[in-house]
Amino acid sequence: MNQIGEVEPAEAIVSAPFFLRGEVLFGSEIIQKSRDLGVTFATPKIPLDKAVAPRTEVPPLLNVPLAEIIDFLVETGQRLSASDNTYMQECVERMCTTHVLPRAVVENSVRHAAGYLDNRVLTAEVEQSFPDPRALDTWVPKQDFMGRKSFVRAFAPRLIHVMPGNSPGVAVKSIAQGAMVKAVNLFKMPSADPFTMVAILRTMADIDPNHPIVRSMSAVYWRGGDDAVERVLYRPQYFDKIVAWGGGDAINNVIKYLGPGFQLVSFDPKTSVSMVGEEALADYDTMDRVADLCSADVMTLNQEACVASRYQFVEGPQEQVDRFCERLHFHIARRAEASGDVRPLEMDMREQVESMLLMDDEYGVWGRADGKGLVIRSEEPVDFHPINKTANVVRVDSLDDAVRWINVATQTVGFYPFDRMADYRDRLAAGGAQRIVHLGEAGPSTIGNPHDAMYPLHRFVHWMAHEDGTVSTLGLP
């Protein structure tokens, strides 16, 4: 018997325990399969009664000051980075069996994820999201121009989080954000990573097993689309909102459960691009430097992240654009080799690339479909999703021509030269894009900025108004 009632499994297997409001639940009753690699792992059955907090219960974090919540999160970040944190060590070992990313990338992602749990970062997130952050801690008095008085509070919501499997950093961020809005949280872990969330929560429980944050968090796994689970949990009787990440299938599956009183906060599947002006082709040194910046955006999290560039619109004649493609391939291949990721392309994608190799007049191809880096040059975006270290360079006469390919699924636009960004940002926003950055800086973002065209914390909370007053000047009773 370990802390907080843990019971170790009878035998060592690749297992994914659950975390239910402070209790760690081991078990191997259900054999699951990861989506990307088809690797099996074991989980317990979900005790649905423990996964749902009754609405008659006041959220545990409601009256805990935000400053104390942030202090606890900061301490958690320090413990996550500690060399003797066995939970995180086990998490990395297990995650390497189910995730497409190589060990070095997984280890680096986990190591850097704790950096979000910094007092300055968390405070900035809150201050940028709420005009008056006091609303998280208390009923804030207001009075309108007619003299009517009221109180407003960002009340603690009840959230189901459908998590993505591409980045451990999202797990850290989701726990922190759920805590800062004082939510009651149920995390549906992804099959690619059913380990990180519980490892973080167990670290928290070691700090204080009875802390209100610990008692506000549960993390379980079920196969997406399992109606036996979802028709029980996805109800407004139990939760206010679903915070859903993932691909189109995952989002569409969630949508069918929506109804009055049960809302969706969606981090839809997104595609990011690069826009490279003719200035990049001025000379060899400039071309090589810009191609390297472009490769950094392509290879963000080995091109598994939404911010990773898929399409690169390059302005200029074909001969010069082809020289840029050669340098881009060189730098992508260099980064791919350093990452240790040796996955070949999926069969369907390989077949399409091989067909392009036979069409010399229409396409240019640098590299092979072996997962070691590939660049395809075309006059229009290819009709498949570039992934696994694949770049599709689209030659354009002018970056004005690239704007027509921007839509509401375009998340990040990496841009060069930097002094032309202001000329395009309005048109990119009108097309639906959500972010424009310097080429090479798709990964890091300004702390507290909107994400996917919204301030998530502001969307998470349940806004409640207490009207308290009459307008005597109008003669109302």
UniProtKB/TrEMBL annotation:
This is Acyl-CoA reductase. The keyword Ribonucleoprotein does not apply. Belongs to the LuxC family. It catalyses: a long-chain fatty aldehyde + NADP(+) + CoA = a long-chain fatty acyl-CoA + NADPH + H(+). Keywords: NADP, Oxidoreductase. Its EC number is 1.2.1.50. It is an enzyme of class 1 (oxidoreductase). SUPFAM superfamilies: ALDH-like. It comes from Novosphingobium kalidii. The keyword NADP applies.
